[in-house]
Amino acid sequence: MGEKLTLRDKYLKLKTGVRILICFEIIIIPTIIFSIILPPSLSKYTQEIMFIAVPIFMWKVVEGKSLNKMGFTHERKSVGDFIIGLLFGVASISAVFVILLASGNISFAGSIFKPHITIGTLLDIVLFIMVGFAEEIFCRGYCLRSIYEKNGSLMAVIISSVIFSALHFGNPNVTPLFFVNVVLIGILFSYMALEINIWLPIGFHAMWDYFEGNVWGLPNSGNLVRGIYDTKLTGINIINGGLVGPEGGLAVTLIILIGFLIVYLIKDNKELKS
């Protein structure tokens, strides 16, 4: 008689897509319940907690894999990669802002030296750090790495980036170019995660989202946020992305493509030093 399979062995024999779907359902069902019973000021945090905790639990406890295989390297340089990611995200979305301002696609009111900072502005730093961890752990940690183990890097990058884009289907004012750009950003984040580690896209993602809305006052994936600066669209077009925000415009497409070159140079520099 053959050796009896454990529950973990049986689970690992499931197709990768089924395991990803199970993970997502365990995340989304409690998230929906929390959104009903808790005020929005709290439920937005519980959603991010679920997207962080459940994939890690499924990966480490249920599937018995190390977090290192998810991309969480433990070297001292990982902190540096996270900080580089934070700065990279700030620089990238700020470059988008400058392009839109210089081309007349947005207008800027007030003075750069007189930001409108509130308690909410500061608290949202914590929220968007959580968003960076949540979406990257699920998409570039659990999904990307699970598919990579069975199907290789190309399929993993494409499918996980499509999943990332699909998570934004419910956003307001979305356009076809918005989804193209979100897939491209997903591919860029996957490139970071596979070639360097997951710390880099977590930092980038967190600060891109935070600075886009809370600092520069631009629509963030269709969501309107009061930024510390007062910015207005001068029109709705393919450059500025209209009401969905810069992710729906060609300015972001350009910055994403430049991002691939920068990541390549970061990777090349790391290889020269090692």
Automatic annotation (TrEMBL):
Domain CAAX prenyl protease 2/Lysostaphin resistance protein A-like: 125-211
Superkingdom to which the source organism belongs: Bacteria
Enzyme class: hydrolase
Keywords for this protein: Hydrolase, Membrane, Transmembrane, Transmembrane helix
Lineage: Bacteria, Bacillati, Bacillota, Clostridia, Eubacteriales
Transmembrane parts of this sequence: 20-39, 82-104, 116-134, 154-171, 177-200, 248-266
EC number(s) given by UniProt: 3.4.-.-
Natural source organism: Clostridium neuense
A Pfam family recorded for this sequence: Rce1-like
GO molecular function: hydrolase activity
Protein name per UniProt: CPBP family intramembrane glutamic endopeptidase
